[in-house]
UniProtKB/TrEMBL annotation:
It comes from Arctium lappa. The lineage of its organism: Eukaryota, Viridiplantae, Streptophyta, Embryophyta, Tracheophyta. This is Uncharacterized protein.
Length: 112
């Protein structure tokens, strides 16, 4: 029963990027998208491109960083670890709050 329900949920989700639910689908992974950073030229492969760059030994050396393996997490638009789950997990740690939750702004707009 549980496996059937889980399978149906994955089928319904389709090609949705579960790390960024607002990202467009990558229909052609061979496409070389580039541009000015506009959402109109959004490259759905941005995560793999970023990780390749940050995990490059030469780049890490140029940043004077300790050799490490980078990964991506996206927060509010992340279908795997939602903001609700993040808050629940933080509350479970039962640590004192140093700064109350507040929205983040960029150019006077709330960042989601």
């Amino acid at each position: 029963m549980c496996e059937d329900t889980t399978y149906k949920a994955w089928v319904e989700m389709g090609n949705t990027d579960t790390y960024n639910i607002y990202a467009p689908n990558c229909l052609n992974p061979d496409t070389n998208a580039s541009g000015t950073g506009s959402i109109n030229v959004f490259d759905p492969r941005w995560q793999s491109i970023l990780l390749s760059y940050l995990n490059d030994f030469v780049v890490q050396k140029a940043f004077h960083a300790q050799p490490t393996s980078w990964d991506v997490c996206s927060g509010d638009t992340d279908g795997r670890v939602t903001i609700t789950s993040s808050r629940y997990s933080i509350n479970t740690l039962n640590l004192p709050i140093e700064t109350a939750w507040r929205p983040w702004y960029l150019n006077k707009e709330v960042i989601t």
